[in-house]
Every structure is written in structure tokens, then in C-alpha cells.
Design brief:
This protein has 390 residues and is mostly beta strands. The protein has 2 domains: 183 residues, Sulfite Oxidase, Chain A, domain 2 (Alpha-Beta Complex); 123 residues, Immunoglobulin-like. 9% of the residues lie in helices and 28% in strands. The protein contains 6 helices and 23 strands. A 5-stranded mixed sheet has the order 4-3-12-7-8. Strands 5, 6, 9, 10 and 11 form a 5-stranded antiparallel sheet that branches. The radius of gyration is 23 Å and the shape is globular. Bound molecules: ligand MTE and cobalt (II) ion.
Length: 390
């Protein structure tokens, strides 16, 4: 620098007048300088926005919690506009006493708080056959991580009395798609929540207001929003979302079904195509997210050279089961091109595979459950691009 920096030696406009008073924004919103931090969709992906998806801007976020207004949305029939006073949750089927709850009834059960990620099974699905979308928002943004407040589903089922022949439950949504999925009773009784708050406040309409099912670690499709009914049965129902959808066609014509758990996965969120390195060579911070539907992430490795050498990343923030984990890798960049990769290890000992390893096992027909290692090629200018290395 030649002279003093005016940004520090001169009085800025905001130092010269009073700001807005309290109550100017009864419900606060981010700074106008952050207006670019929004959910975005990929228009050519779907024919119509009511049966579509948009993506969480993970390249702009830090820590592990996704702010409510930035949680990606996936609707099969648009956002149901539910009046909570007219909304009910029914438990029927193989129970001693079928029950209908109001939202006030649900608030009288003991409730719990848990942070869980929700990942759509189709997250990274467009990348099965090769690198396609230029930004982790689009390749990995069908994920959010929220603290839910809700009632353990077990308590609600016990209230109705589950018959001994019961083995499955079928949650159903109150939206026009009336989404349903078969869930084993064992999972329903284990850690599922009937949730009405996210990050402390009421669920957003996009996320299923006033009540959604939380199915920790399992594919997002099972987390039925606008939850209105849970049927208890002795067999799976084989509905659309577990036959024609959310199954993985293998090269030999067989299909993987009921692939509920989300495998361990990670992605570098910065630098990435939407978050280039702005500063040239020197001290550089790499950061990203890692998660597993089977537990915690004790370790993430980062490679700067496309997987030849690996460095153990620094984890920071709470390590909670079935929740996003934040990692960092700080290094001195010599300004030469990089091939950035991250590789998650989960608490079961499983290690995130390469994309080629996945294709070898499952072929190229799949959309769902792509947890392969992502590569960003970074140029000397600090520009990052979605690539694959073999
Ligand atoms: N529940 C209902 N009732 N209707 C839906 O369209 N979409 C499912 C699931 N629950 C859906 C639903 C899918 S495919 C996903 S990935 C998650 O909700 C998305 O949750 P989100 O919109 O909170 O991100
Ligand atoms: Co989904």
C-alpha cells in the first residue's frame, strides 16, 4: 500500500448518522450485503417449480447449523399451506386405540432436542456419470442441518398401543402429493421425532409446518413433511417412493431397494467453484462439511493433489451423531494449481469411496446415494472448477 487506507482513516457514512431504532425489523433479516446468499435452483433439472428442488448455499455457510431461511426445499406438490388449528395427526392400523392428535395435544408429550442432517437421496445424483454442475451448492446442497424440537415417535405410538403383529409404519403428508414411505417399526421406536420446531422456532412452511417426521441418518424422502397420519402395519406398502423412485438400478438389471441410511460423505465448501480463492498465494483456509447416517465423523482427510497425498483435517464444532461436522485445513499455497479433495471416515470405520469405486459396484444408472469423493481443480488464479480425476 502506498498511502493510508481510507477505509480505516476516514469516517464512514455509517459513523455519521444514527441507525434505525429497535423494532425497525420485528423479524430480523440478513444484511443487504449478504443478499447473494440464497437458495438457488437449476431450472433445467425439473419441468415445474411445484415438483422441484432448490439448493442450500453451503459455500457461504460456516459452522454446522443451517439457518432456517436457507434450508434447501424439495417438494413433490408445492408447499402445503396448513392452518395448524385445522391440522391433525392420526395414528391408525395395527394399534389398540386409533388416535387423532391436535397440535396442542402433541405439545403435552415430553419433547427432545437433537441436531440432525437431512440429505436428499438424490444429492450429487447429477454427478453419477461425470462432473456436471459447477458449485457445491448444486452438487452437494440438497442437505441441511437443524436442531429439531419434537416428540419421540415411540411415545406417540406407545400412546396408541402397538399390536404385537406390527412391523412397519407408514407416515403420510398433508400436501397434495400425500407423500408416504414405509419405515421399519424398529427405526420408528428408536430415534424418529415428530418435530414442530427447527432451530428454536416453528418449522418453516417449506419444511413441513406445523409438523414433520425426522428420520435421523436416513434419506430425506422419508422425512414426511406436513405429517397428518401414521399407519401401523405388518409389511411394507411398496408405494411409489420405494418402488419406481428411491431405488437404484444396477447394471445386471436388479435394483437395490430400501437403501435408507446415508453413507459417509464430505465436500470442500471453500474454495469451490462459487467461492474462489480471492487472495493469491500464501496462507489459505480450506473448509468443508462431513456427515454420516451411521454415526459421527472422527476424521476427515484433505488432499491438495487429487488424492495422492492426504492431510488430516482439523475438526471444529460439536461432533454429534447423524449431524454435519465442520473441518478446516490451513496451508501455505504456493500458487500452483490444486486438485482439492476431502475424504470422510465415520465412527463405524467406513471410509468415503472414490466415484470410480462406486461406479464399479453400482454401474452408471444410479441417481441416488452418490457419496463419492468430490474434486475441485483450482487454477493459478484461484478459480475452482468441478472435475474428476481417475
Ligand atoms: N414430505 C411431503 N409431504 N412432501 C414432499 O414432497 N419431499 C421429501 C421429504 N418429505 C416431501 C416430503 C423429500 S424427497 C425430501 S429430500 C425432503 O422432504 C426435503 O425436505 P426439505 O424440503 O425440508 O429440505
Ligand atoms: Co429428496
Amino acid at each position: 500500500a502506498t498511502g493510508p487506507d481510507p477505509a480505516i482513516v476516514e469516517k464512514q457514512p455509517w459513523m455519521q448518522y444514527l441507525g434505525e431504532g429497535v423494532d425497525a425489523h420485528p423479524y430480523g433479516t440478513p444484511s443487504p450485503h449478504e443478499a447473494h446468499v440464497v437458495r438457488r435452483n437449476v431450472e433445467w433439472l425439473t419441468a415445474d417449480p411445484v415438483s422441484s428442488v432448490n439448493f442450500t448455499p453451503i459455500h457461504e455457510l460456516d459452522g454446522i447449523i443451517t439457518p432456517n431461511g436457507l434450508c434447501f426445499e424439495r417438494h413433490h406438490a408445492g408447499i402445503a399451506e396448513v392452518d395448524p388449528s385445522q391440522h391433525r395427526l392420526m395414528i391408525n392400523g395395527l394399534v389398540d386405540t386409533p388416535l387423532v392428535f391436535t397440535m396442542e395435544d402433541l405439545a403435552r408429550f415430553p419433547r427432545e432436542n437433537h441436531v440432525y442432517f437431512l440429505e436428499c437421496a438424490a444429492n450429487s445424483g447429477m454427478e453419477w456419470r461425470g462432473a456436471q454442475l459447477n458449485g457445491c451448492q448444486f452438487t452437494h446442497g440438497m442437505i441441511h442441518n437443524v436442531m429439531y424440537t419434537g416428540v419421540p415417535l415411540r411415545l406417540i405410538l406407545e400412546e396408541a398401543g402397538v399390536k404385537s403383529s406390527a412391523a412397519w409404519v407408514l407416515p403420510e403428508g398433508a400436501d397434495a402429493s400425500a407423500m408416504t414411505r414405509s419405515i421399519p417399526l424398529e427405526k420408528a421406536m428408536d430415534d424418529c421425532l415428530v418435530a414442530f420446531k427447527m432451530n428454536g422456532e416453528a418449522l418453516r412452511p417449506e419444511q413441513g409446518y406445523p409438523v414433520r417426521l425426522v428420520v435421523p441418518g436416513w434419506e430425506g424422502n422419508m422425512w414426511v413433511k406436513w405429517l397428518r397420519r401414521i399407519e401401523v402395519g405388518d409389511q411394507p406398502w411398496h408405494h411409489r417412493e420405494e418402488t419406481s423412485k428411491y431405488t437404484d438400478l444396477l447394471p445386471d438389471g436388479r435394483a437395490r431397494r430400501f437403501t435408507w441410511e446415508m453413507d459417509a460423505k464430505s465436500v470442500i465448501t471453500s474454495p469451490s467453484p462459487q467461492a474462489p480463492i480471492p487472495h493469491g498465494p500464501g496462507h489459505t483456509v480450506v473448509t468443508g462439511l462431513a456427515w454420516s447416517g451411521r454415526g459421527t465423523i472422527p476424521r476427515v482427510d484433505v488432499s491438495l493433489d487429487g488424492g495422492v497425498n492426504w492431510h488430516q483435517a482439523r475438526m471444529s464444532g460439536p461432533s454429534l451423531t447423524k449431524s454435519l461436522h465442520r473441518f478446516y485445513h490451513e496451508f501455505d499455497w504456493d500458487g500452483r494449481p490444486l486438485l482439492l479433495q476431502s475424504r470422510a471416515h465415520d465412527s463405524t470405520g467406513y471410509v468415503q469411496p472414490t466415484k470410480d469405486m462406486l461406479r464399479e459396484l453400482r454401474g452408471e444408472n444410479s441417481i441416488y446415494h452418490n457419496n463419492g469423493i468430490q474434486t475441485w481443480a483450482v487454477s493459478e488464479q484461484g478459480i475452482a472448477e468441478n472435475v474428476e480425476v481417475s
